[in-house]
Design brief:
The chain is rod-shaped. 93% of the residues lie in helices and 0% in strands. α1 packs parallel to α3. It has two domains: 117 residues; 41 residues. It is mainly α and 162 residues long. The N and C termini lie far apart (153 Å).
């Protein structure tokens, strides 16, 4: 009979879903209670108590499972919301970096436009000066070699080749 009681106890253990520490305490309490019941000869009432405890533990185990499922769902929801918050934060940071880069590029472009348009007046004056210098140089060269060119042309026109 003692062996049947232990088998029943082992089956009731399968129904419970408590942690190892709590399971060990319950196990020790049941064994202590079993020893007391054996000593006083009240085994039948103890078996009845074990049956009622097992059915209560089964319902308690279901409640514990439901509570654990709810807790797990809360953890998953918290992880999802943290992930979504991090994705939103990353998106906001990326948008901020893009805006800063765009502003930097726009500033550089405006500086280049201002530099090229601001120098356009100076460039025009420089080009006019260079053009005047080249015209003056060509005029002096033409004046210097014009007598030689005239002599060469006259020689070519007046000389007859056979």
């Amino acid at each position: 009979m003692h062996e049947n009681l232990l088998n029943y106890y082992e089956e009731s253990e399968k129904l419970r879903s408590v942690g190892g520490y709590l399971k060990r305490i319950i196990q020790l309490m049941l064994l202590f209670r079993l020893d007391l019941c054996i000593q006083i000869g009240d085994l039948f009432s103890f078996m009845h108590e074990l049956e009622s405890m097992a059915s209560n533990r089964g319902q308690g185990g279901i409640q514990q499972l439901l509570a654990a499922e709810q807790e797990a769902q809360h953890i998953v929801n918290a992880a999802r919301s943290a992930k979504m918050a991090r994705l939103k934060q990353a998106k906001d940071e990326a948008a901020k970096e893009i805006a800063e880069y765009r502003a930097q590029m726009e500033l550089e472009f405006q500086k280049k436009v201002a530099a090229s348009s601001g120098d356009s007046g100076a460039n025009v004056k420089r080009l006019e000066l260079e053009t005047q210098q080249k015209i003056k140089h060509l005029s002096t060269e033409a004046a210097r070699i014009s007598s030689d060119v005239v002599q060469m042309l006259l020689k070519q026109v007046t000389t007859v080749k056979n």
